[in-house]
Design a protein that fits this description.
Number of helices: 2
């Protein structure tokens, strides 16, 4: 019985963890119309409790970070969101969220 519990304790976490990466916004602008200032990213934590969730990251926060780093930034393109976390039967979840993109200035 102890061996079965130990085996479950080793295998079960593999089914509860997750990772995802998805493009949020892709750029379709011609490269000659803008100058890339640099990469910008913000980290946050997302907590889900049943159907109630909280996340501290947003595109507005990413834009604010870009403006702090590059004051002449006009826009952010190629925005990606990377999510790493653990979810327990859709009832409880903790996720680390990184949102990043390229800060640009129009010519």
């Amino acid at each position: 019985m102890k061996k079965i519990l130990l085996l479950l304790a080793l295998i079960l976490p593999m089914f509860l963890t997750s990772c995802a990466s998805k493009p949020t916004i892709e750029s379709t602008l011609p490269a000659k119309d803008y100058e890339i200032l640099g990469r910008v990213s913000v980290d946050s934590i997302r907590v889900n409790l049943a159907f109630i969730g909280y996340e501290s990251a947003s595109l507005a926060r990413l834009y604010k970070e870009a403006k702090d780093l590059y004051p002449d930034c006009d826009e952010i393109i190629n925005v990606y969101t990377d999510i790493h976390g653990i979810q327990v039967f859709y009832l409880l979840g903790f996720q680390s969220v990184t949102t990043s993109g390229l800060a640009i200035k129009y010519k």
